[in-house]
Design a protein that fits this description.
The complex is a heterotetramer, with 2 copies of chain A and 2 copies of chain B. By secondary structure, chain A is α+β, with helices and mostly antiparallel strands. Chain A is built from 2 helices and 5 strands. In chain A, a hairpin with a 2-residue loop joins strand 3 (about 50) and strand 4. The longest helix of chain A is centred in the middle third of the chain and has 11 residues, at about 30-40. Chain A is globular, with a radius of gyration of 12 Å. The model of chain A has no long low-confidence stretch (mean pLDDT about 95). Helix content of chain B is about 30%, strand content about 40%. In chain B, helix 2 packs antiparallel against helix 3. The chains are: A alpha+beta, B alpha+beta. Chains in contact: A-B, B-C, C-D. Strand 2 (about 35-40) of chain B pairs antiparallel with strand 2 (about 35-40) of chain C.
Chain lengths: ~80, ~150, ~150, ~80
């Protein structure tokens, strides 16, 4: 399985790209684990996850073709 | 579903006073309106670590933002007696002194417009995925963060 | 005394969207401002005893109104952290759909502008000697009365 | 002694003029009495008095050349 990962704002600076493919993660805990291994700076970073445009809290299972967004603190307005 | 007109919230660059004037004058045919409350967000030239902000560069997660703004809009119409409301937000570069947010709420009696406008602005700041990168004179930047 | 600029509050006839746009654009040099709250009062075509209001004719006790508005202004600057504020009110005939009141409050952080603007509008309605004569299509009239 | 009386809004319609001279009234009670005799419609009317641009409550003494305004309920905005 494959998920589509979107990174915004400062998180796109950390990942170096706005969009990435991530393989073989069954849930958001596994995703976070994998991201922190790849981008150690994320450990110190406060962000939210949105799965298919909905913010999720706690560990959430992921399905093939899900879109997961990494959302740094908002600063609109 | 409602019949409220939908238009894109996002505008490339600053929101001009001519655009605001045009929005206001479009409401002169809606003669049940007794009061409008308008909030305008303006980019400040804050000083951070001795460097002056000259502009903010805004970006968004468009699909999620449009969905969230739609929810904010529906909730405002459900909770207040409004005639109409419009939200516009800039994307890209907005210089210090320019307008980046325009919330326009109209009602028969003023209290609805006041209360709804204030609530909508708070919700936009707290819940809509928009990010502002504060740019300094030397082209370095920091990422803005809204306080609740 | 303060250094806040004084200008006449009263404008003959409706307040145009071009006038409002001009006021907004004058604030782009004040780059400490983060938020503006603007209230616009618009004349409604209310129906009273089966007759439709087509305009309101405003009059005032000028010297007392200017004094009262000065007090409202001073109190707002004393109670809120404001960068600037402006009040304009029409005199004479304002047709349904046109703007008769324009309150424009600017602050570093949005809360001051919101709270002050709302309070100022309530004070103008309650305490400033202005009278509105509601004119019907057949040229008959009734005198408007603000509810507290 | 003489006071300068200003009438606004609906009250100017009742008095027929925006400005009147009133002679020999020592206080606002006497003034109100005199006005009601002259304009009986005022009895039913809710208005405030301002003496030299200040709203007064209760009986207030008047001096020569004072300006007294008859203020119907406000309706600005």
């Amino acid at each position: 399985m494959e998920i589509n990962l979107l990174a915004f704002g400062q998180l796109a600076e950390i990942t170096g790209k706005a969009e990435l493919r991530i393989l073989d993660v069954k849930n958001t805990n596994e995703l976070n684990q994998k991201l922190i291994e790849q981008y150690p700076k994320l450990v110190a970073f406060n962000y939210l996850l949105a799965v298919n445009k909905k913010i999720v809290q706690g560990n959430t299972s992921l399905n093939d073709k899900d879109t997961v967004a990494l959302l740094p603190p908002f600063s609109g307005g | 579903m409602t019949e409220k007109k939908k238009h894109s919230v996002f505008i490339e660059g600053p929101i001009t006073s001519a655009f605001i004037a045009d929005s206001i004058s479009k409401h002169s045919k809606k003669t049940t309106i007794g009061g409008h409350d308008i909030f305008l967000g303006q980019v400040r030239n804050d000083i951070i670590d001795n460097k002056t902000v000259v502009a903010i560069d805004y970006s968004t997660y468009n699909e999620m933002a449009e969905q969230k703004l739609h929810e904010i809009r529906e909730a405002a119409f459900a909770n207040y007696n409004l005639v109409c409301m419009h939200i516009y937000h800039s994307l890209g570069t907005v210089k210090a002194g320019e307008i980046c947010l325009f919330v326009f709420v109209s009602s028969i009696h003023r209290k609805d417009a006041f209360d709804a406008c204030h609530e909508i602005v708070e919700q936009i700041k707290a819940d809509v995925p928009i990010w502002g990168k504060e740019i300094f004179e030397d082209a370095s930047h920091v990422w803005k963060e809204n306080k609740s």
